[in-house]
């Protein structure tokens, strides 16, 4: 069970959603620009088997606490095993739950939603709920999504960057920044972005 390997995982549904051909280094690169420092309390929503949870652990270091939340209990068990091998000093909590419903979490320094928001028709409602999990001053929301306008059966409600930028503003984030754009074999392009509130420099 190598730590740096091609982790092709479903994010919340058990199906592959566009990380084919990507490995741990790629996942880290997608998130790196949105994480200002190590440590803190973060959550990965729709974590699946944890490709991006492991990237978070790598970037945040052993002082972090990470909550991995998904409806797939089997995927979370696989994540727990991999985390023990790769990042045993990082505190991981797994929670079998639907993150579109209220969750009992501490105030979070950051949240990752990677390849998961495009499953929800009422995306703004979901993002408002997620934003409510962040600490009031300076919490960050990182997303990884497809930079496409047309939906597919596997990406029914795509969220291209320009749409995300507008949505993030509507729910109250003062700043949104595009981080990384990468070609995708599944759809044309995948991107990462970070949104944060006015209390933080960025």
- Structural class call reads alpha/beta
Q: Uncertain regions: pLDDT < 50 for 5+ in a row?
A: 5-18
Highest-level CATH class: Alpha Beta
> What order do the strands of the largest sheet run in, or round the barrel if closed?
3-2-1-4-5-7-6
Round the Cα radius of gyration to an integer and report it.
15 Å
CATH superfamily, by name, is Vaccinia Virus protein VP39
H/E order of the elements? HEHEHEEHEHEE
Task: Characterize the largest beta sheet: strand count, sense, and whether it forms a barrel.
Answer: 7 strands, mixed
Number of strands: 7
Reconstruct the topology from this structure.
Blueprint: H1 24-32, E1 41-45, H2 51-60, E2 65-70, H3 73-86, E3 91-96, E4 110-114, H4 123-131, E5 140-146, H5 161-171, E6 175-183, E7 189-196
Structure in words:
This protein has a 7-stranded mixed β-sheet, sandwiched between helices. The chain has helices at residues 24-32, 51-60, 73-86, 123-131, 161-171; strands at 41-45, 65-70, 91-96, 110-114, 140-146, 175-183, 189-196. The longest helix is centred in the middle third of the chain and has 14 residues, at 73-86. The chain has 202 residues and is an alpha/beta fold. Helix 1 (24-32) crosses helix 2, helix 2 (51-60) runs parallel beside helix 3 (73-86) and helix 4 (123-131) packs across helix 5. The N and C termini lie far apart (36 Å). Helix 3 (73-86) links the parallel strand 2 (65-70) and strand 3 (91-96). 42% of the residues are buried. The protein has a single domain (24-196), classed as Rossmann fold, CATH 3.40.50. The chain contains 5 helices and 7 strands; from the N terminus they run αβαβαββαβαββ. The radius of gyration is 15 Å and the shape is globular.
